[in-house]
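Subject: Sanity check before I submit

Could someone independently write out the structure tokens for this chain? I want to compare against mine line by line before I put it in a report. The sequence has 481 residues.
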Amino acid sequence: MAKGTNTYRYKLIKSAYDLETAVEKCIEAYGELREEIKAIENGAALAKGNSDTKTKTEINNLGKYIKTPRQRSRDIQICVDEYLKLKQKEVDSGLLKINTYKIKDRSLRKQLIPYLISNGITKTIQISNNTFNSYPLWRKARKSTRRLELIIFKEFIENFCVMNSLVANEVNIKTMMPKIRITESELDANPPLTERGNWNEILKGLKVIRDRSDLKRNYRGIYFDRLFYRWCLIAKNSGLRPNIELNKLRWCDIKRENVGRWSSSDKVNKDKWVAVIHVRDTKTGKQRTVPTNGVDTQLKEWRKEQNAYVKEYFPWIQITDESLVFGNPANAMKQFEYTMFTSRWAKLMKILEGKLKPYIFSNRQYTIYSLRSTYICNLILQGKDIYTAAKLAGHTVAICERYYAKLDMGSRAKQVTDFKYGVKSRRKVDSASYMDDDINETKTKQTQSNWSQNDSDSYKRTSRKDKASINRSQTVTAEEQ
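---
Independent answer below. Compare away.
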């Protein structure tokens, strides 16, 4: 109701064609209407105090020219749904990885919304600069996980809420998220299996899983256990990322090469076949070529086992060069769910409980990614330079140095601590400054005589040629002294 009248002011809710949309946008329309009324009232008060009288029409028209910032607000749950729909379109168009989308979806739905609700925040306008200060305390997870989630929250607020003017103008996107610092000792989330005897224990555990006689296992379970055995060996000897690289590996991505040599003793060429893997779909988007040791034999054995299984249970399946190396014949050779690999790894760790030595730089448990870490660490321990190790692993040199280069000094322990044996002593060297006023020549001569006396034994043991050289070096002029 307008003051001093019996009339009401109305506001059309824009773009509202049904009741649900009208209810959602009514607060926004109410805010605009309220600002217009304030402008009109302020204009009327101003006109009342001025000596120049204004007509009623001019006062009513003041609201048309007084611009106030529009403050919109929406339900956070609705905003998250719309934001993820946009991200799904990016996935469909190939602009976003499906795994990246799943991480965003899980972080926003299962972490952001529950956290904001616990703080009584349901509308975007309620988000302030201090909203996320307590999130590192509220969220129970690893530091790296919490830091990644805060990055995703910031991206959502900046790229959706701010772009649509759904947060207050005073919110500073750059500083609103708390910083979580991770020390170098906390970077080893996937410790390598480089301690002595650990890999032998892993092999024993893998054979237990492969060869176990469990009545509950059907032919599909037996197939996956054999697949998991070969999968782990190839992962350790190739360094491929488990899910996004190894599980997407096709037979056409692998080439066999003979790197044998000529044997002069046997007068024949010694064959040595290696598997060269061309990684096309990577996490960083950079393709790479990985020559491997020990993978050729595993691939040949796995090819025989896979063919026998398909021939017996799925004879209509045709395995071609485009087929996945570790595909599921029961699902048209598509990828197995990654959870099947992680569950088998958990079972392996339970079998080996108390048998694996802890990694020297970390107290964390060994994970399925430890196979990749083992490959990278073995490259460094074998003396490969950091650039080669980084290129084979698909890392940048900076990342490889940050996570793995500390092993380099451990591998060079003998080189760093080695010294020459048989050297009895070294000549003691005195030091002085030429700026000293009192230079004791007598002390210098006494020191020289002491040197001569201490070195007399070694002088006697020198050859005639070396003695002549020493005598010439000791004959100096007075000016040089």
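---
OP: Matches mine. For the report I'm noting this point. The chain is about 50% helix and 5% strand.
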